[in-house]
Amino acid sequence: MTRISTATIRGKKIKNEKITMLTSYDYSMAAMVDEAGIDMILVGDSLGMVSLGYENTLAVTMDDMVHHTRAVVRGTQHAMVVGDMPFLSYHVSVEEAVRNAGRLIQEGGAQAVKLEGGVERIPVVKAILAAEIPVVAHIGLTPQSVNQFGGFRVQGKDLETAQKLIRDAKLLEEAGVFAITLEGVPGALAQKITESLSIPTIGIGAGKYCDGQVLVINDMLGMFKGHIPKFVKKFANLEPLIMEALKAYKSEVEAGTFPGEEHGYTISDDILEKLY
Ligand code: KIV
């Protein structure tokens, strides 16, 4: 089976077909997402919150990302896997950024990387592209800027920031990124940005006019107990089902009803007798 390529993703915009993207962090989930035919899997640094239990994404390291990207890649055959560049992995120097992007490709097995930021990231984006690594940009409510923003706040609601986002998107397109994630921006602004670009936009909390959508998988499956943003639709509510199963397991083990005969292995009486 061939993997979805950057050309396929760009082609979807031309053909007016929506792009689907979800996050995954491990082999089993990635295999299901892949089997469901989702176009792109983002090994997001949201890993920090949903899998590692941090308050935000800032503590996630390159080693974390490489480790989880490898697991996701092993679970997939069809989807394009995008490795997220964590905080500080592309901020210190262009050389370090290229080396770290390269790790997600070479060690992690991803087909592309994603990084946050607008015009200020252009030199880094160009250097990573020069190393033949496809880049997805991410603008708007960029979670790695949480301390700068003073919280997770919708971006682009005033003229100045809305104009900056339009400009950032254009400059990132000119720099060569093949897609732009728009997070936490008003739908009408996301629509304007989407219409102004020849590359696809992939929205999260950015309305329905983006060329594609992405969600954090634990949020959309209803299996994350932390804060769930307004823009998330729970396509399932797995948490109560999981709790029910866990409680049933506990009570069956405690009552001695699990495991049953059907869950065990036998040994012949002959051999058993000789053991004593
Ligand atoms: O880390 C992540 O999951 C992301 C998405 C929210 C776009 O960056």
Structure description:
By secondary structure, the chain is of the alpha/beta class. It has one domain (6-240): Alpha-Beta Barrel (TIM Barrel), CATH 3.20.20. The protein is built from twelve helices and eight strands. The chain has helices spanning 6-14, 27-35, 47-50, 62-74, 94-106, 122-130, 146-149, 159-175, 187-196, 217-220, 238-255, 269-274; strands at residues 19-23, 40-43, 80-84, 112-116, 135-140, 179-183, 201-204, 212-215. It has an eight-stranded parallel barrel, surrounded by seven helices. It is elongated and about 80 Å long. Bound molecules: 3-methyl-2-oxobutanoic acid. The site of 3-methyl-2-oxobutanoic acid has 12 residues, from β6.
Topology, element by element:
Elements: H1 6-14, E1 19-23, H2 27-35, E2 40-43, H3 47-50, H4 62-74, E3 80-84, H5 94-106, E4 112-116, H6 122-130, E5 135-140, H7 146-149, H8 159-175, E6 179-183, H9 187-196, E7 201-204, E8 212-215, H10 217-220, H11 238-255, H12 269-274
Parallel strand pairs: 1-2, 1-8, 2-3, 3-4, 4-5, 5-6, 6-7, 7-8
This protein binds 3-methyl-2-oxobutanoic acid.
3-methyl-2-oxobutanoic acid (KIV) is lined by residues 23, 42, 44-46, 84, 138, 181, 183, 204, 214, 216.
Question: Summed up, what is this model?
Answer:
By secondary structure, the protein is an alpha/beta fold. It is built from twelve helices and eight strands.
